[in-house]
Automatic annotation (TrEMBL):
Name the record gives this protein: HTH crp-type domain-containing protein
GO MF, one example: DNA-binding transcription factor activity
Organism in which the protein naturally occurs: Candidatus Woesebacteria bacterium RBG_16_39_8b
SMART domains registered for this protein in UniProt: cNMP, HTH_CRP
Superkingdom field: Bacteria
Organismal lineage: Bacteria, Candidatus Woeseibacteriota
Cellular component terms (Gene Ontology): cytosol
Stored Pfam families: cNMP_binding, HTH_Crp_2
Keyword annotations: DNA-binding, Transcription, Transcription regulation
Every HTH crp-type domain range: 136-210
Positions of the Cyclic nucleotide-binding domain: 21-70
């Protein structure tokens, strides 16, 4: 655990050597035609990674929070980029040239190990999402999406309450759940009427995470999902 913290601190200090950049909410950081030549470290704000389907629908693949790095898998793998990275809120990032990151990973095996572990855990999270998106109906897709958001962005409160500390709209939830906005809104209203979720300002609150999880087949542990790759 101490080595992991040390490696994380070294990585953050490395990015802090570079100039920071600000993006406004809605601003595109990387387009689908851009070849990644840098790695971004999020200081504050949220960034979504999405693709556009042939019929023009947005499909959200991942949401990055402060402390995350992107696009690691594209840049290090030298793979063509078919994805967008967009600020979901006002965002501040450090931007390090890819060649400098590659040199750091080649020289520091502790950082390389921690980054590899993070990528592996992130891949597991993506596989779990893929299963519930393929196997569930609309109701369970929305329920599972809220469980995922709780695990990824949740702050535990009393009596099983979880505050999702990510301002998110029905439209954005629909893009995570692979549903239309209209269908998503109907299912969210069901959950609110059942007393499973409510809103506190711009944020969603899960009233009892155990009860909500029992509505889906997702397993939930009361700890954040280490999904910051």
């Amino acid at each position: 655990m101490e080595k992991a913290i040390e490696a994380e601190t070294k990585l953050r200090n490395f990015f802090a050597n570079y100039k920071y950049k600000r993006y406004k909410k809605g601003e595109i950081i990387i387009r689908d035609s851009d070849e990644p030549e840098a790695i971004y470290y999020i200081v504050s704000g949220f960034v979504k990674n999405y693709s556009i389907t042939p019929d023009g629908k947005e499909l959200t693949l991942n949401i990055y929070k402060p402390g995350s790095y992107f696009p690691i898998y594209l840049a290090l793998g030298r793979m063509p980029n078919y994805y967008y990275f967009q600020a979901m809120s006002d965002v501040v990032v450090f931007k390090a040239p890819l060649k400098d990151v590659e040199l750091l990973l080649a020289e520091d095996h502790e950082i390389l190990y921690e980054l590899t572990k993070r990528l592996s855990i992130g891949l597991n999270g993506l596989l779990i999402r893929m299963q519930y998106l393929l196997l569930n109906d609309a109701y369970n897709k929305v329920v599972s999406t809220f469980v995922f958001l709780a695990k990824r962005f949740g702050e535990n409160g009393k009596n099983g309450e979880v505050l999702i500390k990510l301002p998110i709209t029905h439209y954005e939830i629909s893009n995570l759940a692979c549903l239309t906005r209209e269908t998503t809104s109907v299912e969210i209203k069901k959950l609110q009427k059942m007393g499973l979720i409510n809103k506190r300002g711009d944020l969603y609150v899960i009233n009892n995470i155990k009860e909500l999880t029992e509505e889906s087949w997702l397993y939930y542990e009361e700890k954040p999902l280490p999904y910051n790759f």
